[in-house]
Amino acid sequence: MLLVAGRPGHGKTTLGLQLLLDAARDGRKAVFFTLEFTEQQARRHLRSLDEGRHGLCDKLQILTSDDISADYIIRHLSGSERGTVAVIDYLQILDQQRSKPALSDQVLALGDFARQTGVVFGFISQVDRSFDPESKRLPDIRDIRLPNLVDLRLFNKAYFLHNGEARLQDVA
Q1: Which residues of 82-119 are buried (b: 16+ CB within 10 A; e: fewer)?
Q2: This protein's superkingdom (predicted)?
């Protein structure tokens, strides 16, 4: 359970997609669940990262349904091999539709699924507008935008990005 966090335009999606390309390069199943991009937009971004050298972006599954939620993701990944990598774009809108379970319940369910199956999850996450790069170079766990509460200790690691810099840290 990896959290990839930063302000808009600082490389969160690029990093998430690169994780998927690396997984595909290693012969693992790689799935991108996005509530933000169309499939064409995601494939275009993937091709720019792969630069057409390996054709890996065609091996990735891209799901763009408005039904994306923990239940949807678990159903889709059920039976996947250990080491499958899934990136969810993005954390803060998993429960945007009122008919979906609370964000904390969804993250808990995905964490349980990850422990049981060995599926690796990456969650693209927004950093709150209150993050001030004048007072610290990189955001940290306290800067995660949480319009709906979720226990961030459910994540194992967090990767923070800002202005070309990055830091990986343990969360739990």
Answers
A1: eebbbbbbbbbbbbeeeebeebeebbbbbbebbeebeb
A2: Bacteria
Q: Which amino acid is at 74?
A: I
What's the pLDDT band for 51 if we cut at 50, 70, 90?
confident
Tokens of 86: 């899934």
In CATH, what class is 2-131+143-170?
Answer: alpha beta
Query: Among candidates 110, 111, 122, 132, which has minimal Cα distance to 34?
Result: 122
User: Residue 153, SS3?
Assistant: helix
Question: Where along the chain do its domains lie?
Answer: 2-131+143-170
